[in-house]
Amino acid sequence: MQVILDDKTFNVEIIRKPNKNIYMRLKDSHTISVSANRFVSEKEIEKIIYKNEDSLLKMVKNKEKEEAKENFFWYLGKSYTKIFDGTSKEVSFMQDCVVAKDEKTLEKFYQKECLRVFESEVNRIVPYFNNIPRFSLRIRKMKTRWGVNNRGNNTITLNSELLKKDLDLLDYVIIHELCHFYEANHSSRFWLHVSEYYPKYKEARRRLRE
User: Fold this and answer.
1) What span, in angstroms and rounded, lies between the C-alpha atoms of 76 and 138?
2) H/E run at residue 106
3) If DSSP codes are grouped into helix, strand and coil, which group holds residue 11?
4) Partners of residue 100 on adjacent β-strands
5) pTM summary value
6) What is the distance between the alpha carbons of residues 160 and 74, in angstroms, rounded to a whole number?
7) In angstroms, rounded to a whole number, what is the distance separating the alpha carbons of residues 119 and 114?
8) Is the pLDDT of residue 152 over 90?
9) How far apart, in whole angstroms, are the C-alpha atoms of residue 205 and residue 210?
10) pLDDT tens, residue by residue, 3-45
11) Count of Cβ atoms closer than 10 Å to residue 190 Cβ
12) What's the rounded Cα separation, in Å, for the pair 110 and 131?
């Protein structure tokens, strides 16, 4: 089954389930997945799709943006087109491209670079701080936070997604978390500490939100 929305043809994948309601989602930017009871006809499904055309087209735009991002490798604030040649032993950068054997190899490179870059920046910044405890550094992907300072076990965790950002934004997050050794909350005194080490912290926060 196919439908045309805004002059674009979409495949409609119908999944029959004992639902009371009809549920729609985008499987990809060209496919609408519909979950419906077996008693709901294709004609009824088509009507509901057209009734929700505006919402679906907004979802399509967002999906297209997501798919476009997947074609690029973001590294320290720059985007590189991925090229997989099936033979390269090491990952290399060539102008606006990154060349790797395959996606798995590129992902391993990303994880190694997280450790190398993050440790390097932490070691560069820490000497500027006085009277902070020894701490361990952890790196993992987080959905809602760029960094976490666990004062209970003196551990700072940094979001691996920061490697995609400009290096100065990584520095801001490191400084932010180190300042939590002085102030556990986000009081005015905390931000005063942050501003001493990173005067343009408000701009950094805005850029991270973007």
Assistant:
1) 19
2) helix 103-125
3) strand
4) 84
5) 0.72
6) 12
7) 8
8) yes
9) 9
10) 999 988 999 999 999 888 899 988 888 899 999 988 999 999 9
11) 16
12) 33
Q: Report how far residue 158's alpha carbon sits from residue 177's, in angstroms, rounded to the nearest whole number.
A: 9
Q: pLDDT digits over 30-41, tens only?
A: 899 999 988 999
Q: Tell me the pLDDT tens digit for each residue of 63-118.
A: 887 776 777 999 999 999 999 999 999 999 999 999 999 999 999 999 999 999 99
Burial of 59 (0-12, 13-18, 19+ CB in 10 A): middle
Residue 131 has φ and ψ, to the nearest 5°, of 55, 45
Assigned token pair, 96:
């606006």
Q: Which two tokens stand for residue 109?
A: 């490179």
> Measuring CA to CA, which residue among 52, 53, 21 is closest to residue 39?
21
* Residue listed under structure tokens 């087109």: 81
Q: List all residues 6 or more positions away from 182 whose beta carbon is below 8 Å from its beta carbon.
A: 132, 189, 190, 193
Measured CA to CA in angstroms, residue 85 lies from 78, 100, 107, 144 at distances of: 21, 6, 15, 35
Both tokens assigned to 84: 């997989």
Give the C-alpha separation, 61 to 65, whole Å: 6
State the DSSP code for 122. Answer: H
Q: Residue 94: its pLDDT value, please?
A: 92
Distance CA 18, CA 44 (A): 16
